[in-house]
């Protein structure tokens, strides 16, 4: 499968990304469309993967950052038709290793893609890292 990766926010098919996040992603179904739009608009960087044949959205990744030393990788996904073709690796590589944050401390949460992220140097946190989880029933 031929695809290309691009960090143009304007190229993102927001309807396709929204559809995946609200029907297939285990991590983001709680968001409203307005919240999703705000997350994309205010993201430090977004990266999309697109079919070369027709420009259709194959995958997506979003990051937020202080722009200086740390960033959080979020909403990384590849549509089923693009899986197994290196699309996920390309998304993460472009976001983490080939962009303006290549020297940052990167963070993320994942329940099922540890192998992918380990190949880019992600590891379980050490004893200096703490987290306050999102409340189960936010107001």
Summary of the model, kept short:
The protein is α+β, with helices and mostly antiparallel strands.
Question: Your description of this structure?
Answer:
This protein is α+β, with helices and mostly antiparallel strands and 139 residues long. A five-stranded mixed beta sheet has the order 1-2-3-4-5, with helices on both faces. The mean pLDDT is 94.
Sheet having the most strands: 5 strands, mixed
Shape: globular
> From the helix content, strand content and strand pairing, which structural class follows?
alpha+beta
Low-confidence parts lasting 5 or more residues at pLDDT below 50?
A: none
Give the beta-strand count.
Answer: 5
Task: Give average pLDDT, whole number.
Answer: 94
* Fraction in beta strands: 15-25%
Features:
23% strand, 139 residues, 4 helices, alpha+beta
SSE layout and pairing:
Layout: E1 3-6, H1 14-23, H2 33-42, E2 45-51, E3 57-65, E4 70-78, H3 87-97, E5 105-107, H4 114-118
Parallel strand pairs: 4-5
Antiparallel strand pairs: 1-2, 2-3, 3-4
